[in-house]
Amino acid sequence: MGAEETNRRGSILNVAFEPLTVADGVHLIATQGNGVVVEQEEGLVLVDAGPGGELTERAIADVRRLSDRPVRAIVYSHGHIGYNAGVAQWRSHAADRGEPQPVTVGQHNVLRRFERYERTRGLQLMLNSWQFPRTSREALEAGLSIPPPDLTFDDSYLLDDADHPVEVFAAPSETDDAIGLWLPRQRILYAGPAVINGFPNIGTPQRIQRFTTRWIETLEKMCRRRASYLVPEFGPVVTGEEAVRVRLVSTIDALQWLVDEVLSRLNRGMTDVEIIHDLPDPGPRFDHPHLQANYGSPDYVVRDLAREHFGWWMSRNPTDLHPAHPDRVGAAVLDAVDPDRVLDRARALIGEGDDQMALHVLDLVALAPGDTPAIDEARRLKAQCCDRLAGECSIFVSRSLYRGSARLLRSGRTRWSQAPDGLDHLDG
């Protein structure tokens, strides 16, 4: 892969690229991330079918530019929505060509994930509309329509071939059903979501726990493969055994440092927020292009570690043990403060550029029920702060949530339950 291609694909979640050849018979195409295509005698092995629609049609066309062989197997990189919503199109493609249907392969835990997604379908649509606000509800609905794999495994599964044997192995990281791919002859390692083009996606605000130590263990197992090529889920291929080692070891070191520092402070009774503000300078540990906080974030990891080792009462505030309804709380607080003084203080903080502190102050008024002029102004200012924080934030997920919150506030609402159909319906 040339320098121009590496630079062009340097941004997080960049999925638009031309097919690339990593080694003889091993290629990358754009699916929902880096889709791996391996040419075997019996047919092609493909990682991820893509999100469906035009993107999967493009992936099919890209594969046909590389090879005319049938698709032997489609491997699910992990169970997150969208990555394999395009399976039906690949099956239709095989039928049109008069070929056998490709077998779909996934780690066994993906079955439980798909069951959970079906039971929480409304929640999944809602949280994904917040995290990916540019994606239509129709596309999000389609992304949940992923057929369970035909074949599942626990630890590993071999798709054998004389020249390009492929070992699919369990690699829990972002999900407990994530996989890695190992091509021993070419020494190519596909790391799936364990490696992205940014800080590991642990502890993201709207997802269940991702267990930092488990992620470290997966990276350590990958490191022992001594790969010559490392294919991340997103971003350019890492080439050369030493470069691959540095990529994996530096990530392990950054995560292990966070584990050690967080546990030390949990043992001293600190909350997650206290820990975030008490962490020492990590020195050069995070000074790598692949550890930029553009999707994942060290702050997120702190929150996930705190959840892993402590219960839900992270604030340690007795007020939160058996709280009153938010509307009653908001009304009582508003009755106890001078709204004009609150608004004046918030405006002063905004003028000083301290939007985060302004949010804390504005909540004294903005969270109250009703639509008095003071409440409306507090929500307007809070939305303004959210927009400014979004503009300053490098982390994709936080940026999306700030902007979604601003839209919610401008619609006169403060809680998701007041907009159960998601962001698409706020402006209607």
Describe the model:
This protein is α/β, with parallel strands linked by helices and 428 residues long. The protein has two domains: 3-249, Metallo-beta-lactamase domain (Metallo-beta-lactamase, Chain A, 4-Layer Sandwich), CATH 3.60.15.30; 324-425, Serine Threonine Protein Phosphatase 5, Tetratricopeptide repeat. Helix content is 44%, strand content 14%. The protein has 15 helices and 13 strands. The strands form two sheets. It has a seven-stranded mixed beta sheet, with helices on one face. It has a six-stranded mixed beta sheet with strand order 8-9-10-11-12-13, covered by helices on one side. Residues 1-11 have low confidence and may be disordered.
Task: Record the strand order, biggest sheet.
Answer: 1-2-3-4-5-6-7
**What's the level 1 CATH class of the largest domain?**
Alpha Beta
Counted up, domains total 2
The largest sheet is: 7 strands, mixed
Topology record:
Blueprint: H1 3-8, E1 20-23, E2 26-30, E3 34-40, E4 43-47, H2 53-66, E5 71-75, H3 87-96, E6 103-107, H4 109-119, H5 121-131, H6 137-143, E7 151-153, E8 156-159, E9 166-170, E10 179-183, E11 188-192, H7 212-223, E12 229-232, E13 238-239, H8 241-266, H9 272-278, H10 298-309, H11 326-336, H12 339-351, H13 355-366, H14 373-392, H15 396-410
Parallel strand pairs: 4-5, 5-6, 6-7, 11-12
Antiparallel strand pairs: 1-2, 2-3, 3-4, 8-9, 9-10, 10-11, 12-13
Helix pairs in contact: 7-8, 8-10, 9-10, 12-13, 12-14, 13-14, 14-15
